[in-house]
Amino acid sequence: MKTVLYTRIFIWTPIIFIGYFISAQIGFKIAFLNSQVSPVWPPEGVGLASLLLLGPVALPGIYLGATLANFFNNPHLPTAFLIGIGNTLSSFINYRIIKRVTEKSDPIYSTKDLIYFLSIGTFPGSLVSTILGVTSLWYWDFLSSELYFNVFFTWFSGEMLGFLIVAPLLYVWFHPKAKLKLELRKQIELLIWIILVYISGSIAFSDEWPLLFLPIPFVIVTSIRFRQFGATLSTVVLAFTAVTLTIEGKGVFARRDESGLSINDSLIFLDAFLFCISGIAYFLVTATRERERAQLASLKSLQFLNELKEKANEELEQKVLERTAVIEEQRTEIEKQLDMAKRIQESLFPQKEILPQGVDILFKNIPMMKVGGDLYDIVWKPEKQELGVFICDVSGHGIPAALLSALVKTSLEKWKQDPVDLKDNLESIRHQIIPNLREHFVTASLLHLYTGTGSLTFARAGHFPLFIIRKSGALVSLKPMGRIITPIFEILAEEERFQLETGDLIVMLTDGLTEAREPESLQMFGEERLLHLIRDIRSLPLFEIQDQVFQSVIQLSGGIAAIQDDLTLGLIRYSGITEETSKV
């Protein structure tokens, strides 16, 4: 065992030493205030990534690289010795914290681990290294007392950026189990996006066009398209561009005072910007990875359960006929209970056909299981020519979601009495259901329409926009502000108004339609595809439009049994109240 350990140390020490030494020279190239103080210290990223990939075996290489790099830059052995200790300790302290709190070596594996990495996985080590390094320079008169705190802050910022930006890049790109396998076309696409990040960053941090927001969409797209590889590479390129231009006195973060460029003030704002950008990119990656893992686990669990059920049935048929009878009896009872639950939930939907004057209206719901968490309701007040429509989606599936949807149904009485004040009704619904929400949440929308005039009002709580397909085929989306319904935050809903014209088609839906996926490629049906389909057949009767939409979604999912969420679609076509409809 010791022989294997010594062999690994012997092999990796020179490799890490060379990498650390080269990255240190890059850091020294942009040093200021003192020849050993850099606004970005890439070697800390090398050190932390080496420890995350190899463990403590990397420590000798880190220490040798840190000591000799500093000695090579400033040939004074005591300072090089202490700075080397500080650099090594900083990487090791952060490594131990990350391992302890995440129980893994991947700092951007999950959202929780990423939060730990960004909050406590960079700060402690950076502080230790800064104290040792700056104090040693001051003690041996390489640094005046007047510049101590300026250098201290710059050193600390450089350490933080090294850990925050360089370490994830090296960890991702050198991890043996995370190879980037791209065909030539995708490689060219990645290169193009990185070039766009660099160009947009150069523009954003120029004095001529200080468009600070310009690189953000390119970093986001690169992160989404190429996951952790795109996120880490794009943030490094943007950070390099931002730092080099800022210390040259260019860009919006180049702060000046009476003595000239204020490096410390500049770095405060620059570090905050880079922290936010890298955090956004990393969070996009972790959120996407967690979503895919959850979906894959769900599919695998379903396949495993199906296989287990088949195997169990074979064994039971052969060995335990009596037990099979008992299980069949229990299954029948459960099915009866689910059928009863289904009938109860179906009673929550409008039970009789509603025929408002001036509109055609049609809603349909298909739950993922026998019961689900989608709900809709319709109110028609003919004496006022008022039509009210409510639609919501409770998080989760099955019986828990169905029970919560029943709770939502009981909260609609105030809305049914007066469907005009949408904001007040949404808050009323929230206050009635939040004691029972706990970890669940609800998205909802309310619509109010004067059918005589075509005056429409819409409000939502984290739900889909209201889509209106004009008779000409033009698409209008109403997107008023409104948070999802949770026990934590107020909804803060806003109302948006719109004037309908004859022939306009209103589309209301839940996310089961747009997020339906192909079983193999996991490609989603998508909002754009759904609206394009409805727009192409907008002149057909509502029931034909509805049938074609559900057939397309179910076919993409691989059949009715393979849908992954509850499906709800509502269609409202405005015709206006004519003299004939008024008599009816």
Automatic annotation (TrEMBL):
Residues 356-574 form the PPM-type phosphatase domain. It is found in: Cell membrane. Residues 299-347 form a coiled coil. This is Serine/threonine protein phosphatase. Pfam families: MASE1, SpoIIE. The chain crosses the membrane at residues 12-33, 45-64, 76-93, 114-140, 152-176, 188-206, 226-247, 267-285. The keyword NAD does not apply. The keyword Membrane applies. Keywords: Cell membrane, Coiled coil, Hydrolase, Membrane, Transmembrane, Transmembrane helix. It comes from Leptospira montravelensis. Its main location: membrane. It is a multi-pass membrane protein.
